[in-house]
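Sample entry (175 residues):
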Amino acid sequence: MTGERIVFGGGCFWCTDAVFKLLRGVEKTMPGYAGGAKENPTYDEVCTGRTGHAEVLRVDYDSAVIPLDTLLDVFFEMHDPTSLNRQGADMGSQYRSIILYETEEQRTVVEAHIEGIRKNYAKPIVTEVKRLDVFYPAEAYHMDYYAKNRMNPYCALVISPKVSKIKKEFARMVR
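Predicted structure, serialized as tokens:
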């Protein structure tokens, strides 16, 4: 099957977007908010940590080119899935590790993948796994943020090293 979609939250969605855009088989990405209760949240509201939403990235992918297991390998390599509500200096529940699936087949793959990598971590994996209820696209200025703002200190100091790491570790899958 091709033309699938899954949602990842692994810290700041600028980082997640920059990383997944690198990969062959990823057809489209969209930063946004999901996993919480507030309808139509704004970035400022999500940043308060009171909406229940995480900064996430919706990833449309061709599973014939890049299987879900490879996307999961990249996801777990690009962030610390043992860090509760924090990635580096980004703190709060909006930065939590979360995977929001659309199908039961995806749920099965995600849960099996997590079970298979647990032994690679000294601390427990805290990644939340749940069915996607609703996804709210982020404001337009978040789209392609890294590509448009590479000289921004956050981009240079936080995102660029992640991009370099993924380019090296997953060279066979990079465009």
